[in-house]
């Protein structure tokens, strides 16, 4: 039954969402009709061989042809694009974000830097996607015309023609448990951003004022960078743990109880580290409090109370967010 379920999964995952359930029922019924009452694994393989490559069978259910390039390499071509494109986008975003933060001098307002960066990132992603699509397509056309000229079958993601034996390596993933690659990429981008922000907090987080209509300029940093750097032996291993967890999610591709446990431990540890750092009274630049008190024309204790309130509000918000995230991953793994 595992081979049958894997075969149905390989066919239906290539179809539009609205067709999958009906096609799965129809296909399961067809396979059962091809088998005797007490069938063996060899008889299942023989029946599936008669049905043929899942990619070709899926194509027969579609209303429109799927010929971006030749059908021999179409499935492998799509698999390659799905593997390369997310990483190309991730690297493009990371390179620009890191470059922007490192080179930020504080002479230009944060808002204008963010707006300019968004435009540059979008333009770079479009450029990378065009280049990726062009060169990958050229490579596969070359492979199809030269490398597979003597083969009549299609090339699968395993690099050879399809056989029922390949179904043993298929992981049937429930839609409710699946971890979208976009979610993993966002996690990696977010980890990289907060690490870079951590190392440059004194140049980015601070009190900004507009002078002579020339945009917002930083007056003084809000955080004490030396205090942040004292926590580096704790923060850096945690950042590596977050990257490792993202790669593990990429490998598993679905929520499991093991992954839920690892993710929960990682989130609780990160939350603990954040609370320890944020609750350190030396973290806030002590010169900022009298400055704000003077600008706002209130006493320093009121400014201090407001900062304490803001810090603990952020902590409470993150605690709730982490709890929801852990419960949501548990719910998906149980589905």
Task: Give an account of the 3D structure.
The protein is elongated and about 85 Å long. It is built from 13 helices and two strands, in the order ααααααααββααααα. With 335 residues, the chain is mainly α. The protein has helices at 2-12, 17-34, 41-51, 54-61, 74-103, 110-147, 181-199, 201-204, 225-230, 232-252, 257-278, 288-296, 300-334, and strands at residues 206-210, 216-221. 69% of the residues lie in helices and 3% in strands. Helix 12 packs across helix 13. Strands 1-2 form a two-stranded antiparallel sheet.
Care to count the β-strands?
A: 2
User: Which structural class best describes the helix and strand composition?
Assistant: mainly alpha
Across the major sheet, the strand order is: 1-2
Radius of gyration: 27 Å
* SSE arrangement, N to C: HHHHHHHHEEHHHHH
Spans with pLDDT under 50 lasting ≥5 residues? none
Write the layout of secondary structure elements.
Elements: H1 2-12, H2 17-34, H3 41-51, H4 54-61, H5 74-103, H6 110-147, H7 181-199, H8 201-204, E1 206-210, E2 216-221, H9 225-230, H10 232-252, H11 257-278, H12 288-296, H13 300-334
Antiparallel strand pairs: 1-2
Task: Fill in the keyword field for this structure.
mainly alpha, elongated, 335 residues, 13 helices, two-stranded antiparallel ribbon
Q: Quick recap of the structure?
A:
With 335 residues, the chain is mainly alpha-helical. The chain contains 13 helices and 2 strands; from the N terminus they run ααααααααββααααα. Strands 1-2 form a two-stranded antiparallel ribbon.
């Amino acid at each position: 039954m595992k081979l049958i379920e894997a075969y149905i999964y390989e066919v239906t995952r290539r179809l539009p969402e609205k067709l999958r359930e009906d096609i799965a029922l129809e296909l399961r019924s067809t396979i059962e009709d091809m088998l005797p009452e007490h069938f063996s694994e060899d008889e299942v393989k023989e029946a599936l061989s008669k049905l043929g490559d899942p990619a070709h069978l899926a194509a027969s259910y579609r209303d429109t042809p799927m010929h971006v390039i030749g059908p021999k390499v179409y499935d492998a071509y799509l698999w390659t694009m799905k593997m390369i494109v997310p990483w190309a986008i991730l690297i493009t975003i990371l390179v620009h974000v890191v470059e922007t933060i490192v080179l930020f001098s504080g002479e230009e307002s944060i808002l204008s830097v963010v707006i300019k960066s968004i435009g540059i990132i979008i333009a770079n992603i479009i450029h990378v996607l065009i280049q990726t699509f062009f060169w990958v397509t050229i490579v596969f056309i070359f492979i199809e015309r030269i490398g597979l000229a003597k083969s009549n079958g299609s090339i699968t993601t395993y690099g050879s023609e399809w056989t029922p034996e390949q179904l043993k390596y298929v992981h049937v993933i429930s839609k409710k448990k699946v971890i979208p690659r976009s979610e993993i990429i966002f996690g990696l981008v977010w980890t990289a951003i907060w690490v870079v922000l951590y190392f440059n907090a004194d140049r980015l987080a601070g009190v900004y004022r507009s002078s002579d209509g020339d945009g917002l300029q930083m007056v003084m940093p809000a955080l004490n960078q030396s205090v942040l750097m004292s926590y580096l032996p704790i923060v850096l291993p945690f950042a590596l743990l977050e990257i490792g967890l993202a790669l593990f999610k990429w490998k598993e591709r679905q929520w499991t109880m093991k992954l839920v446990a690892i993710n929960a431990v990682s989130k609780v540890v990160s939350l603990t580290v954040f609370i320890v750092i944020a609750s350190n009274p030396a973290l806030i630049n002590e010169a900022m409090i009298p400055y704000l008190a003077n600008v706002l024309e209130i006493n320093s204790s009121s400014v201090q109370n407001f900062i304490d309130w803001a810090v603990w509000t952020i902590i409470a918000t993150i605690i709730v967010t982490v709890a929801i995230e852990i419960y949501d991953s548990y719910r998906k793994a149980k589905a």
